[in-house]
Write a structure and sequence with these properties.
alpha+beta, 2 domains, twelve-stranded mixed beta sheet, 8 helices
Length: 388
């Protein structure tokens, strides 16, 4: 019998199949984000390459992880995927009660270059491993690429407003109407924050400036205290500068002896301050709303000074009082400028509650006009201290 020669076709097939795929695939996943205190829910978000879905995410409930920070939900896609060239987005926005839906092109070449090159951090190369889709009120969307040490903004988008979220669902709308006038809802942390700061639509559309500065802490007390300052920017981002705000000895604060370095970050509009004694017996806490014109004040000081810090300086304690005071300063190694005084409430160790309000408002504060579609109820439990 005539012997038939076997031809190895497998490498040829693989080569032909490979030629139909994009040359560059990377290991990345997709995530979604919403500003802190301005919850949103993706329904869904989908990334495409040449008309084919390559990854997506969705969630059944809203969340507000912080602008640029990722939240969980269902995600899909291969491990190694082509870089997308477009996106489709749909989300329900809790702050204004609308839903936004639409597609947009993405700057694929820019993203491709970032995936290829990665980023250099402290002399080491880091890979981008995530594409984050941010959803904010007004249909304002931002796309970031993310790695181990922060995000790189890719593009800001405007997604069309399609009307009332689930407006044709009578049962849902009735339940939402009841929820929004409930005591728990109107006195929630998010409702209080929105009442004090409004909906800053333009900041998501235009983006927010960053500056080189850091946050410090000082006190007249000669005892050891643990302190923390959680700061939020206008766009609902957490501000991560020196993650453990450095302590400035009081004598160094007085003499402007500040040598600590600075980092790049957005400016705060709201901070949560905790001050706890080393023996854990004295707890103080406060939420501080910054003056509306703080950015202008900061920029004026910033132009004239180097090594700028926002410093929280605590007064000496009065043991008989259920609160204590402090002052926020702008400070450099050569000068300082007073911003505002604030009050921290002291925790009652017996009741485990604060006997006075934790909120401080700046002098001359005016509640911003509410621009959401659904009227915002004034919180009934929003007491505060305000400097006269």
């Amino acid at each position: 019998m005539k012997k038939i020669k076997t031809i190895q076709l497998l490498p040829v097939i693989i080569l032909l199949l490979g030629s139909c795929e994009p040359k560059d695939k990377f290991e990345w996943n997709v995530a979604w984000s919403a500003p802190k205190f301005y919850s949103a829910a993706p329904m869904p978000i989908e990334f495409f390459y040449q008309g084919r879905s390559v990854a997506g995410t969705s969630a059944t409930i809203g969340a507000d992880p912080g602008w640029g920070m990722s939240s969980g939900g269902y995600t899909g896609g291969d491990i190694y995927k082509p870089v997308p060239d477009s996106i489709y987005m749909k989300w329900g926005d809790e702050a204004d009660g609308n839903y936004y839906e639409g597609g947009a092109r993405l700057p694929r070449e820019k993203m491709l270059e970032l995936f290829r090159k990665g980023k250099i951090v402290n002399g080491n190369k880091e890979k981008y491993t995530q594409i984050i889709a941010g959803m904010a009120p007004g249909g304002n969307a931002t796309i970031w690429m993310s790695g181990q040490t922060g995000n790189t903004e890719i593009i800001r988008l405007k997604i069309p407003n399609k009307g009332v979220w689930r407006g044709n669902d009578k049962a849902y709308m009735e339940s939402q109407a009841k929820l929004r006038v409930s005591h728990e809802y109107i006195n929630s942390e998010a409702s209080k924050y929105q009442y004090l700061h409004g909906i800053p639509y333009s900041v998501w559309e235009k983006g927010e400036k960053t500056y080189k500065y850091d946050i410090g802490f000082s006190s007249e007390e000669d005892r050891d205290f643990y302190e923390s300052v959680t700061a939020f920017s206008k766009d609902g981002s957490y501000i991560f500068l020196n993650e453990n705000q450095f302590i400035i000895p009081y004598k160094d604060w007085v003499s402007n002896h500040i040598n600590a370095g600075v980092k790049e970050g957005k400016l705060p509009v709201h901070t949560v301050v905790q001050w706890i004694s080393e023996d854990d017996k004295q707890w103080y806490k406060g939420e501080i709303v910054f003056p509306v014109d703080f950015q202008n004040t900061f920029e004026s000081f910033y132009k004239k000074n180097k090594n700028v810090h926002i410093v929280y300086v605590m007064d000496k304690l009065s043991p008989s009082e259920n609160y204590t005071f402090g002052t926020i300063w702008l400070q450099s190694s050569t000068s300082k400028e007073r911003i505002m005084k604030f009050r921290l409430a002291k925790l009652n160790n017996e009741t485990r509650k604060y006997d006075v309000s934790k909120y401080t408002l700046p002098k001359g504060f005016v509640v911003p006009k509410w621009e959401g579609r659904i009227p915002l109820q004034k919180p009934t439990e929003l007491e505060y201290w305000q400097e006269e």
